Amino acid sequence: MSRFIQIVEVGPRDGLQNETLSLPVADRLALIRRLEAAGARRIETVSFVNPNRVPQMAGAEEIMAALEPDLDHSRIGLVLNLRGWERCVAAGCDEANVVVCATDGFGLANQGATAAQQVDTLAAIVERQAVEGGPPITMTLSVAFGCPFDGEVSEDQVVAIVREAAALGVPEIAIADTIGVADPWTVRQRIEAVRAAAPDARLRMHFHDTRNTGLANAFASVEAGIDVLDASVGGLGGCPFAPNATGNIGTEDLVYMLERAGFDTGYDLAALIEIGRDISEKLGKAPASSLARAGGFPA
Ligand code: ZN
């Protein structure tokens, strides 16, 4: 028995976006290519944000133009608004991941829009895609377990937005613990509530390891039947609201845990460990993932 768990690599986007050092386009391209060679089939490559606001993500169009279209790999662009959607379509992304914040506090600080306004934006993007075409749309619901501005985020808040996304026919919905405050028991409950609200959508989970609960939350998700998880090579990234915090759960740590238990992920663990070490060195820091430090087992 081998169950396949899909890991979406988010290091080149969520990881690098939250690093203080900005890497040039050439280095980011090299990272994307190595990750794809190591088994990443779906990968967040770019973000269509204003480069003046997020200099780490400048050059999205250049990166997409340099990547040869390839049926085996899906390059995902992060989209916050209609302008971002237009750029994402023009750049030739294979998927658009539209972010909606669960709270007004985070939405206003991050995207200058309330949660309800962001749902309206999602609806407008879905409508545009229906008329003009474009890549498949997924939604990531950020700060779905807690918000640095508004505090606790209730299950009802999350479910209400998920219901709207489901009504729009969004085929994949990610529930994100953007600031790393979730615990595995809450994760399980929230998955059950979200699944009931969006029975036809595929659910994906996105965890930051800010408070060392990331892998436990991933475990709880898999136990609850989730088969798509986000992770970031080397545990790249951080948390914009917790200085010195670690980033997303490390792809190599997640691959190790799952494959040790007999799951299939399609990744080459040894290659991932190398990539995690190299990119951390490039960023001038020690790798955040445990596997980058300890290596796999058996050797
Ligand atoms: Zn994130």
Describe this structure in words.
With 299 residues, the chain is α/β, with parallel strands linked by helices. It has a single domain (6-294), classed as TIM Barrel (Alpha-Beta Barrel), CATH 3.20.20. It has twelve helices and eight strands. The protein has helices spanning 11-17, 25-37, 60-66, 82-91, 104-111, 115-132, 155-167, 184-197, 214-223, 251-260, 269-282, 290-294, and strands at 6-9, 42-47, 74-79, 95-101, 137-142, 172-177, 202-207, 228-231. The strands form two sheets. The chain has a six-stranded parallel beta sheet with strand order 2-3-4-5-6-7. The chain has a two-stranded parallel ribbon with strand order 1-8. Helix 3 links the parallel strand 2 (42-47) and strand 3. Helix 2 crosses helix 3, helix 3 runs parallel beside helix 4 and helix 8 packs across helix 9 (214-223). The chain is globular and about 50 Å long. It starts with 5 loop residues before the first strand and ends in a 5-residue tail after the last helix. The mean pLDDT is 96. Bound molecules: zinc ion.
Please give the structural blueprint.
Layout: E1 6-9, H1 11-17, H2 25-37, E2 42-47, H3 60-66, E3 74-79, H4 82-91, E4 95-101, H5 104-111, H6 115-132, E5 137-142, H7 155-167, E6 172-177, H8 184-197, E7 202-207, H9 214-223, E8 228-231, H10 251-260, H11 269-282, H12 290-294
Parallel strand pairs: 1-8, 2-3, 3-4, 4-5, 5-6, 6-7
The chain binds zinc ion.
